[in-house]
Design goal:
The complex is a heterodimer of chains A (146) and B (140). Helix content of chain A is 82%, strand content 0%. With 146 residues, chain A is mostly helical. In chain A, 35% of the residues are buried. The two termini of chain B are 14 Å apart. In chain B, 31% of the residues are buried. The chains are: A mainly alpha (146), B mainly alpha (140). The interface between A and B is large, with 36 and 36 residues.
Amino acid sequence: MSFWEKGYLATAGAVALAASFYAYIIWQRSIQLGELVSPDMVSFVTYVVVVVVLSGIAFIVIASRLAIKAEPGDPAYDKYDERDKLVGQMSSGQASHVTSFGVYMALLGFIVHGDGNVLFYSSLAALAAGEVSLCLLRVFHYNRAI
Amino acid sequence: MGFQEKMAWAMMIILIVTGAAYYNLVFQTSAAIGATAPPILPLMIGYVVFLVVLSIIASIGIAITKPSEANAALDERDQLIQFKGEAWSGRAMGFLVLCALLDFGVNGDGNRLFHAIFASLIISQIAEYGLQILFYRRGS
């Protein structure tokens, strides 16, 4: 498995973990309140920052481990080449369909229930699903040997 | 100009015109009621139907001018341009939806969030076709 594959798998895990933790916090608060809580900007911005930081850390940790194992003179990780670019573009395009499908479902849901908080959380879930699918699609395309 | 590029031009223009007409009605309704208008289902269905009908008319019109091009499968370059356009417009959509969510966090208006997210989807779609045209012109 290449450096990029490992990095994207780790990023998918990190995004899924952060999203699950955020969902858990919202769930706990909603149970205490007896209704779905309004999104507070502190936890939302924290979630976005955590996702970005965890994704960065995943690549740094993997690069460091590979650098320790690498023979003297060998690069610790593969350069981002033409194939990586093609895999990235294909995966981003397909992942954008996942996100837009989720967002459309969230919008349709809003027409039914009219609750802005539900629309907020379901749109955020669609973004997280899109991000996780982006990473997994990259790994899938690498393994399909494009 | 190839079939795909002509279709991208047609779809971009159709999306801009229908999107502007839809939001013009939303703004007018909001001004009339003095608050952000809730999503109007008949208007949305009308918008989607109108969009689909115009797209079909455009594709038939373009296909009639050169039927051989319309039947041809996408080549490597067309596919690459499509992937690149989708990839960049997907990022734009993610960014715009995130901005809409932040806006909801500030003002808490669900109807406004709905219209902002719907606009993000339309804008990202327009961007996708615009980028495809740009990549065709640039000779990607």
